[in-house]
Each structure stands twice: as C-alpha cells, then as structure tokens.
Amino acid sequence: TMKGELLQMQHQVKEMFNTQKEMLEAIRNLTTAYEMSTAKGKAASSHDTKGNIVVLGGQNGVFVSSSWLNSVEVYSLANRTWSKLAPMQERRAAATAHFHNDQVMVTGGSYGVRSATWSVEYIQIPGKDLSFKGLLDAFLIGKLPFECCGHKTTILNDYLWLVGGSDFRNQQPCSSAIYMKSLQRHSTGIFQIKCRMPEPLSYHALEVVDNEILIIGGSTNGGADGIVKTVLSYNTATNALREVHPLPFPMADMATVKHGDDVIIIGGVNKDREYLNTVFK
C-alpha cells in the first residue's frame, strides 16, 4: 500500500540521518587505526599502505521530495579528505557493493518509489592498476535475476551469492531465493537458484562464517509489520539450509560485522518502527 511504502521510505531516510554521526565517528576511529598501523609499518617498509572508504549512491531528502543518488565518493584514511569520482551509470539506494578484482562491484538498488534496477556496475578506484581480469569483468557486466533493492550479496570461493531482496515486479513483495553465479572467466554468467528460504526476505543482514552464509532478521514484506527474528544458516558446500538460534527480538536493517567466529549486530529497526542502538553478538 502507499502508506506502507511511505513508512518504508521514512524508515530508510530517518535511519540515514540517525546513523550519520556514528559513521563519522567510525571514520575517525578507522583513521586513528590507520595512523597507528602506518607508524609501525614505516620501520619495515619504504611505501605506505593506501586505505579508502568508498560511498556509492544512496538517498537524500524526505518522502516525495527525496532524490536517489548516483554519486561515488572516496574518503582517504591517509589524508582525511573526501573526493568525488565519476558517477555511476544509474541512481541506486539500498544496493550492495564489494571490492573485486581491483574494482568496486555494485549491484541492484532502488532509483524511485517501487522502482529498482537489476544492473551490475564496476567502479574503478584511482591508484589501482586494473588487471586483465578486472577489464574483462567490466566488459562482461551481467545483470541480477530480477530488479531488486534491500537484497544482500557476498563473494565466496569465486561465486557471487544473492540472497532475498524486494522484488517490485511480482505480487510477492520479496524474494525467498538464494542465487549463485560464477565469477570465473569461462562461466555462462547465469544466476542459478540454489535454495529457497522458508519465507521471502529483504532488509536482512548477511555474514559469512567459513562456508556458511548467515541470514539474519529482515522483513518478509519490506515493511515493519513483516520484521522477523529468524536466523538462517546456509551451507554453500552441502546446499543445506537450517534455522539456528534466533535474534532476541524481531529486527531489520541492522549493521553487522564479523569478529573472529562472532557476528556483531548493531542497531536496526524493530516491528514498532523504533530505531535501535543495541549491540549483540
């Protein structure tokens, strides 16, 4: 419904504003860590290690006045400066991105109300010499199996895995599929459905532990009323999907990071549309 779509947009925009301060603090912490590691490394090396944070697309504004972005900006940990790169070919919010073969690969994302793309772009980062395989990747840009946003992807063992996502083409608001696509040069480039989750999901979290893909929380319909506390574990080697210990309560749109064998779950939103400052592992 239109009300549900507006609530979903409000959630995305409000969360962006609420997390801006935390993002800046994280950048400051990363800068400090970089300076410490560089100070230690200079004694043993004649060249500095370059570190960058790449920010692609997003959404600004509120509701109908909001705009979807195709910007690409890089924060240099060494210089503490932002710089703009050439924009993406498409506007994208709620997309995914990975560093792959000396480039940033960005997939899917929304570019308007109930509008999403299935395209995949490769963004070259200044100072990185593009390998032959990287050039080939850029030439053989494929597409996702459907137009989606709020999905999750990961690269594991030279395969791109796609899990869930909002699907505006179909009556089902989200996808329940776990797709796999080979990134090897000789592959056909076709996404294959390897497994289906018990329920469709979008705005979930995803982390990889060994060969297991953990699928954490999310929404079955893209809205707050569909948020769940389920945690699934998909074994990429055996193609087995199982439900593991759930979250303490339903949540979606969390930030996650792997720390050793633990997965740290930060923030998010609950079924009451309350924005969270919780941290779990």
What report would you give on this structure?
31% of the residues are buried. This protein is α+β, with helices and mostly antiparallel strands. It contains two helices and 21 strands. The strands form seven sheets. A four-stranded antiparallel beta sheet has the order 10-11-13-14, with no helix packed on it. A four-stranded antiparallel beta sheet has the order 15-16-17-18, with no helix packed on it. About 13% of the residues have low confidence.
Which regions contain 5 or more consecutive residues with pLDDT less than 50?
A: 13-24, 26-49
Query: What is the C-alpha radius of gyration, as a whole number of Å?
Result: 19 Å
Q: State mean pLDDT (0 to 100 scale).
A: 80
Task: Give the structural class.
Answer: alpha+beta
The portion of residues forming beta strands comes to 35-45%
Q: Count of DSSP E strands?
A: 21
Let me know the largest β-sheet: 4 strands, antiparallel
Helices, by number, come to 2
SSE series: HEEEEEEEEHEEEEEEEEEEEEE
**Helicity range of the residues?**
10-25%
Shape: globular
